[in-house]
Structure formats: C-alpha cells, structure tokens
Amino acid sequence: MKKISLVAMVGAIASLAAYAGQGNMNNNMMEVVTVEQVRGMADNSPVIVRGYLLRQNGENSYVFQDSTGTINMEIDQEDWGGLTVAPTDFVEVWGEVDRNGTSMIEVDVSAIKKL
C-alpha cells in the first residue's frame, strides 16, 4: 500500500512540475506585438501590446494607441484590478484578438498594468 501511495505522489509531483514548466515556457514565448500586427492575427490569438489608452469609447470600450496605430479594446471592470490609467500612462495589455466580421477587430483584455 505504501508503494502505491509513494508512486502516486511522485507522479503527481512530476505532473505539477511539467505543468509549471509548460506555463513558464508559454509566457516566455509570448512577444509584444504592435497594433498593426494585431490587425493581421487570427481570432482568439493571444496578444501583448504596449502603448497608451487614449480614451473611453463606450461602457467597456477604450481606444488604445501604439506607434503603428489605434485599436479598440474591451476592458471589463474586473480586468482593471483597481488600476487607474491616464492617457499619458504607458501600459502593457494582455488579451486576445476579437474579430467580429472582416472590419471589426478589437482586443478583449484579460490584464493591464502600468510600465
């Protein structure tokens, strides 16, 4: 009985280590992209962009700008994490591409931080 428990425990630890390693590898592999690059990406592609939130454009809609252009971002209340951002604050935004047809492209934000 002790041998089975020990084997199960070792297997669980190995699985957790592999999972943690995979998550770290994926985070390190993500590169910051530009608004121009976002426009060419597929729906649901994960993205990281850096730039400025210029203004609110609706209840959860904001206009984001980097050196290559502007794009709308959907930022739900819980995604702010208590952060207050001014148009002069340089921010990093994590999210995914949201394509609604051929002309409507925005970023659905999952996290934001000031840099």
SSE topology sketch:
Elements: H1 2-29, H2 35-39, E1 46-56, E2 61-66, E3 69-74, E4 91-100, E5 104-114
Parallel strand pairs: 3-5
Antiparallel strand pairs: 1-2, 1-4, 2-3, 4-5
Short description:
By secondary structure, the protein is α+β, with helices and mostly antiparallel strands. The protein contains two helices and five strands, in the order H-H-E-E-E-E-E.
Radius of gyration: 19 Å
Strand content: 35-45%
Main sheet overview:
5 strands, mixed, barrel
Q: Can you tell me the CATH superfamily of the largest domain?
A: Bacterial OB-fold
Strand order of the main beta sheet, please?
1-2-3-5-4
Task: Fill in the CATH topology of the largest domain.
Answer: OB fold (Dihydrolipoamide Acetyltransferase, E2P)
